[in-house]
Amino acid sequence: MRLALIVAALTLPFAAPLSAALAPGARAPDFTTKAAIAGKAFTLNLRSQLRKGPVVLYFFPAAFTGGCNAEAKAFADSVDDFKAAGATVIGMSADDIGKLQEFSKAHCAGRFAVASAGPRVIQGFDVALNRPAGADGKVRTMTTRTSYVIGRDGKIVFVHSDMNPADHVRTTLEAVRGLAKRG
Known about the structure:
The chain is α+β, with helices and mostly antiparallel strands. It has helices at about 1-15, 45-50, 65-85, 95-105, 120-125, 170-180; strands spanning about 30-35, 40-45, 55-60, 90-95, 115, 130, 140-145, 145-150, 155-160.
């Protein structure tokens, strides 16, 4: 019985929606990091991206995993809809830039940037996914699956935090379209 409760407690965070610390109205922390699009690395700065319009900043746990691959494809398939609504899509994970360069080609289809989230960004957006140490004793840094819509003014407009990737594209696109209507 006790073992069943422990197993249930360990799986609960992955079955239930997560809550992000940055609520709508909060200011998104600015950052500069390495990013890739279509396999080419570059330096990405959030404030510079916001000058173009709203940003959909979606955090995903790890490149080349089933849910993250599917989510990247879904965002890639919808990039034109986001652009039509005036928004830029940026994916972020704790993966290194080399891995993200490959991921940007393989699963993002070169349609949007993916960026490497270091400890400061992970902490600032409150997206740390606590993972136990593996057999080697090392803890793998990962992020929760949390999507933020950030307005041009740098404030969080919408948050969707759920380990299931199914609704992130739909809900963030709805939020961006709502933002565009408010003008």
